Amino acid sequence: MKNTLLALSALILLVACNKEENHADANVHITGTIKGFKKGKLFIQRYADTALVNIDTIVIDGSPTFESHLKLDSPEMLYLVIDRVKTNSVDDNLQFFAEPGNIKIVTYLDKFYSAAKITGSKNQEVYQEFLAVKKRLTDANLDLVAKDIEARKSKNIAQLDSISLKSDQHLKRRYLYTANFALNNAKYEAGPYIALSEIPDANTKYLDTIRKSMTPQVAKSLYGKMLTKYVADRKKAEAAPVQ
Fold it and tell me: Between 23 and which of 29, 40, 69, 205 could a Cys-Cys bridge form, CB atoms 3.0 to 4.6 Å apart?
C-alpha cells in the first residue's frame, strides 16, 4: 500500500513537472468559461499571411472552463473559435487582443461573441473603446442607407443629393476619427493594428504620422513593423514615375 502511494505521488509529481516544462516558455496564460458549453472543441487561431491557422486546440468534455498557454513575441489579435459539434451558429468566432500576462474570457454558448467579457489585456481595452465608437458610426451610416433607399423609391432628387452629401461627410468623419484614435493610442499595439485594419487606404501622410508617433516598443512589435513597412511601400509606390 505504501509503495502504491509512493508510486502515485511520483506520477503526480512527474505530470506536474512535465506540465510546467511544456509551458516554460509561454508568456500568455488564457483562462475562461463558456457558460452552457459542455461538449465540443475550442481553437485559438492567428493570421498567418492571409489565412487563419490553429495555434492551440482545447477539448471541452463536461466542464465549460478552458485554459491555454501561449508564447507571443508581442501583443497580437487572436481568434477563439468554437466547434459546437452538433449545432451551427454564425456566432462562433471571438476576436481578442492577446498580450503577455493573464487574460480571462467569460461568455455564453448562445451569445458567444456578443456577451463576451475579456479582461487582463490593455490592448483589448483600447480596442473595445474603438469598437464602441465604430458601432455608433456604423449605425449612423445604416440610417443614411435606409433614407437613401426610401428617397430612391419616391424619386426625391433633392433628398438624394442631401443624403449623398451627408454620406460623404460621414465617411470623412469616420476616417478622421479612426486616424486620430490610432494616433492617440500609438503607445499601444492596438494603434497600428487599427490603422492597418480600418483605414489602410487613408492618405499616406496620416498613416505616416501614426507611424512616427509609435513608441520604440510598439515600433518593434508585430503591427508596428507591419505599419512601418506598409507606409514605406506606399511612399515608394507614390514616388514611382507614372508609365
Answer: 69
User: Which region, left, alpha or beta, applies to residue 101 given φ > 0 means left and ψ of -120 to 50 means alpha?
Assistant: left
- For the segment 193-213, what is each residue's pLDDT rounded down to a tens digit? 999 999 999 999 999 999 999
Beta bridge partner(s), residue 31: 67, 104
120, 100 contact by CB (below 8 A): no
Backbone angles phi, psi at 79, to 5 degrees: -135, 125
Q: Where are the domains of the chain?
A: 26-120, 124-239
How many other β-carbons are positioned within 10 Å of the β-carbon of residue 235?
Answer: 14
Beta partners for residue 41, in sequence order: 59, 83
The identity of residue 72, as a single letter, is L
* Conformation bin of residue 203: beta by default, left when phi > 0, alpha when psi is -120 to 50: beta
Over 80: is that where the pLDDT of 21 sits? no
Q: What is the pLDDT of residue 200?
A: 96
Q: What is the DSSP string of 56-117?
A: EEEEEES--EEEEEE--SS-EEEEEEEE-SS---S--EEEEEE-SEEEEEEEESTTTTTT-E
Domain 26-120: assigned CATH number: 2.60.40.180
Q: Where are the beta strands (DSSP E) in the chain?
A: 28-35, 39-48, 51-61, 65-70, 76-83, 93-98, 101-108, 117-119
- Between the CA atoms of 192, 197, 124 and 103, what dihedral angle is there, to the nearest 10 degrees? -100
Average pLDDT over residues 42-50: 93
